[in-house]
Design goal:
Chain A contains no helices and 11 strands. By secondary structure, chain A is mostly beta strands. Chain A starts with a strand and ends with a strand. The chains are: A mainly beta (113), B mainly beta (119).
């Protein structure tokens, strides 16, 4: 089955700097890659997603890139702010009938003022 | 729109008892619901996928007789943890999907989670 690896597990940056989180997946049939932000004790919130027919997508300070050949995708956060501090998860899905998501291991991002 | 609720938000039970967790889609019909378990500082692990009116599909390693899932309607799925033990203590999160969009993928909307503590 699908396996999603995520790096780094923790990331500390200064406010205003950029943060990059990387994920790799194993199943070449995966075609949908969302990113979630989860604050302590809360539900995951979708922050951006990308489909396999697109190489890059941007939404204000957040961008995601996808390299299907290498089977990896990355989250880029620019001009980080303290409120960006949270745990970020990548996920992969085949978009098949069940549309189930396989999550990465998570990255704890800390943005210091 | 696309609100998913879970009840209860927190539950403490004694070892050996059963606990039922409800997941409801409040403003849409969910053709598919998913149940995840999340241990502290770990990722979300998919437990099972349920479609309305049919038996749930469990992920490898998840005991279907211990974690009973019922998806009786398009807005309600329940997870019952039977004969709970301390190692079942975890954060249980459901998600609901309204079905595939013309673009090919249907987004999952997550519930707020239920923190189960088994003493």
């Amino acid at each position: 089955g699908e396996n999603v690896e995520q790096h780094p597990s923790t990331l500390s940056v200064q406010e205003g700097d950029s943060a990059v989180i990387k994920c790799t997946y194993s199943d070449s049939a995966s075609n949908y890659f969302p990113w979630y932000k989860q604050e302590l004790g809360k539900r995951p919130q979708l922050i951006i997603d990308i489909r396999s027919n697109v190489g890059e997508k941007k939404d204000q300070r957040i961008a995601v890139t996808l390299n299907k050949t290498a089977k990896h995708f990355s989250l880029h956060i620019t001009e980080t702010q303290p409120e960006d501090s949270a745990v970020y998860f990548c996920a992969a899905s085949k978009g098949a009938n069940t549309d189930k998501l396989i999550f990465g291991t998570g990255t704890r991002l800390q943005v210091f003022p | 729109g696309a609100v998913v609720s879970q009840h209860p938000s927190r539950v403490i039970c004694k070892s050996g008892t059963s606990v039922k967790i409800e997941c409801r889609s409040l403003d849409f019909q969910a053709t598919t619901m998913f149940w995840y378990r999340q241990f502290p500082k770990q990722s979300l692990m998919l437990m099972a996928t349920s479609n309305e009116g049919s038996k749930a599909t469990y992920e490898q390693g998840v005991e279907k007789d211990k974690f009973l899932i019922n998806h009786a309607s398009l807005t309600l799925s329940t997870l019952t943890v039977t004969s709970a033990h301390p190692e079942d203590s975890s954060f249980y999160i459901c998600s609901a999907s309204p079905g595939r969009k013309p673009t090919g993928y249907s987004e999952q909307y997550f519930g707020p989670g239920t923190r189960l503590t088994v003493t």
